[in-house]
């Protein structure tokens, strides 16, 4: 089954976000009275998957009611995606000047930190018991997903096939999400049984040659565990 | 306009080393991008100030901790922590401005509230109408579908939605699938079709 079923949820997302940007508490009589807003730190932790599902559900319900909470949620999500992108391999590294190490060792540690930061956001542990099962961190044999297309590779819009390393379990299913560099959704496909997917040229029609696309895969195992790949990039060419 | 923070010396930009400067530049760039896309439109003229407040807060925080790690061998603050602090500063600043009495915008500020990246006024009005319809339709939806659809429309993929809400992947997919269908029906009933 492809996702979304009809049209794109992206139009709904954009319309909802645009409406929320224009809302000012109390300005619209059609809106519910503003509540005490949740602490920003809680929203950040909820988006990062650091809160138990019950707490996340309370915050999501608040976001459904209150434009300000929804906006704060979107902001946290966008910043966490940007942070993960910046920390991905190839990004500039954190300063390690406080450690008295040889330059070679500093670079080795910095590279490990950068990979860990990037992977950490995407390969989160499941927040609590009672959920779909633990989210598996990469690294276990057969339980990790990595891009099988060179990061930053230039691919033709007419034959843009994204491939990744499959999970060991043949029953695994994959979902793929592709966005532009400014996080506009390009494609979202679920329930793939193969570790590859060709993006239809139609989905890429409005994207100029040379644009960078970000992509990420989630693999779902029959026992409910979910494995996420780090975010990878490709460049679009005609 | 930048609100004074007694803990932050605002006399001038703090000295930073090139690599740190790169880190701040990255943080500032990511903040500016996110704020420009998501900041309330009535705060459009204050976007730069809001970003600046957040970056200064992060720099002040790191500077205060710098003495500790340089003398005690501790590592610099993690990027994830800095982003979290900056995010909280942005949200707090927006909330503080939201609480202030509304003032009439001057011509210059009015000009700044519409950028070329934003839809034309007619399209924006239509989007607002649809957006308000979405919120009304969400309110009428069964709770589990409402939660799933809300998270999906806030930008999360279906597997992410499952993880955050603690639901099985297949169940989440069904709830979101049916919830989106409900939402489209509800909007159509209101004469709205994005």
Question: Can you describe what's shown?
Answer:
The complex is a heterodimer of chains A (238) and B (194). By secondary structure, chain A is of the alpha+beta class. Chain A contains five helices and nine strands. Chain A has helices at 9-22, 40-47, 53-65, 67-87, 103-122; strands spanning 135-136, 153-156, 160-163, 173-180, 185-192, 196-199, 212-220, 226-228, 232-237. In chain A, helix 2 crosses helix 4 (67-87). Residues 1-17, 69-75 and 103-117 of chain B have low confidence and may be disordered.
Question: Brief description of this entry?
Answer:
By secondary structure, chain A is an alpha+beta fold. Chain A is built from 5 helices and 9 strands, in the order αααααβββββββββ.
List keywords for this structure.
heterodimer, A: 238 residues, alpha+beta, seven-stranded mixed sheet, two-stranded antiparallel ribbon, 9 strands, 32% helix, 20% strand, disordered N terminus, B: 194 residues, mainly alpha, 8 helices, 0% strand, globular
Which helices and strands occur, and which strands form pairs?
The complex is a heterodimer of chains A (238) and B (194).
Chain A: H1 9-22, H2 40-47, H3 53-65, H4 67-87, H5 103-122, E1 135-136, E2 153-156, E3 160-163, E4 173-180, E5 185-192, E6 196-199, E7 212-220, E8 226-228, E9 232-237
Parallel strand pairs in A: 1-8, 2-9
Antiparallel strand pairs in A: 3-6, 4-5, 4-7, 7-8, 7-9
Chain B: H1 18-38, H2 47-72, H3 79-99, H4 107-112, H5 121-140, H6 143-153, H7 158-165, H8 169-189
Which structural class is indicated by helix and strand composition of chain B? mainly alpha
Structural class of chain A: alpha+beta
Separation of the first and last Cα atoms of chain B: 38 Å
Q: What shape does the CA trace of chain A take?
A: globular
Mean pLDDT of chain B: 74
Q: Give the overall average pLDDT of chain A.
A: 72
The share of residues in extended strands of chain A comes to 15-25%
Helix content of chain B: 55-70%
Q: Could you tell me the number of beta strands of chain B?
A: 0
| Most extensive interface | A-B, 90 and 82 residues
- The rounded Rg of chain B comes to 21 Å
How would you sum up the global shape of chain B?
globular
Major beta sheet of chain B, specifics? none
Low-pLDDT parts of chain B are 1-17, 69-75, 103-117
How many individual helices of chain B?
8
Oligomer: heterodimer
Helix-strand string of chain B: HHHHHHHH
For the biggest sheet of chain A, the summary is:
7 strands, mixed
Number of helices of chain A: 5
Question: Low-confidence runs of chain A (pLDDT<50, min 5 residues)?
Answer: 1-7, 25-33, 89-103, 112-139
In total, the number of strands of chain A is: 9
């Amino acid at each position: 089954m492809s996702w979304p079923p009809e049209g794109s949820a992206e139009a709904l997302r954009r319309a909802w976000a645009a409406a929320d940007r224009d809302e000012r508490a109390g300005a619209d009589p059609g809106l519910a009275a503003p509540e005490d807003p949740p602490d920003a730190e809680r929203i950040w932790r909820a988006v990062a998957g650091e809160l138990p599902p019950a707490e996340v559900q309370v915050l999501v319900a608040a976001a459904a009611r209150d434009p300000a909470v929804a906006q704060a949620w979107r902001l946290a999500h966008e910043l966490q995606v940007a942070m993960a992108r910046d920390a991905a391999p190839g990004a500039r590294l954190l300063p390690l000047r406080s450690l008295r190490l040889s330059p070679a060792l500093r670079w080795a540690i910095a590279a490990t930190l950068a990979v860990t930061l990037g992977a950490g956001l995407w390969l989160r542990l499941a927040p609590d018991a009672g959920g779909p099962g633990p989210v598996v961190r990469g690294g276990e044999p057969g339980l990790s997903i990595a891009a099988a297309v060179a990061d930053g590779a230039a691919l033709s819009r007419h034959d843009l096939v994204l491939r990744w390393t499959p999970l060991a379990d043949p029953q695994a299913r994959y979902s793929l999400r592709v966005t532009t560099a400014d996080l506009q959704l390009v494609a979202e496909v679920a329930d793939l049984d193969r570790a590859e997917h060709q993006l239809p040229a139609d989905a890429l029609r409005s994207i100029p040659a040379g644009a960078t696309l970000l992509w990420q895969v989630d693999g779902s195992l029959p026992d409910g565990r979910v494995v996420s790949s780090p975010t990878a990039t490709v460049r679009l060419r005609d | 306009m930048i609100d004074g923070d007694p803990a932050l010396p605002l006399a001038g930009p703090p000295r930073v080393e090139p690599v740190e400067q790169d880190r701040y530049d990255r943080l500032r760039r990511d903040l500016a991008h996110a704020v420009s896309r998501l900041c309330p439109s009535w705060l459009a003229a204050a976007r730069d100030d809001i970003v600046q407040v957040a970056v200064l807060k992060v720099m002040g925080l790191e500077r205060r901790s710098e003495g500790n790690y340089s003398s005690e061998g501790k590592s610099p603050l993690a990027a994830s922590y800095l982003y979290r602090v900056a995010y909280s500063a942005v949200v707090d600043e927006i909330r503080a401005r939201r609480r202030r009495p509304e003032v009439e915008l001057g011509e210059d500020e009015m000009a700044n509230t519409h950028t070329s990246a934003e839809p034309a006024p007619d399209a924006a009005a239509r989007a607002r109408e649809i957006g308000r319809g979405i919120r009304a339709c969400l309110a009428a939806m069964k709770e589990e579908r409402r939660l799933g659809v809300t998270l999906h429309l806030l930008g999360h993929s279906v597997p992410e939605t499952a993880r955050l809400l603690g639901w099985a992947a297949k169940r989440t997919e069904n709830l979101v699938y049916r919830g989106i269908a409900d939402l489209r029906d509800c909007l159509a009933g209101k004469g709205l079709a994005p």
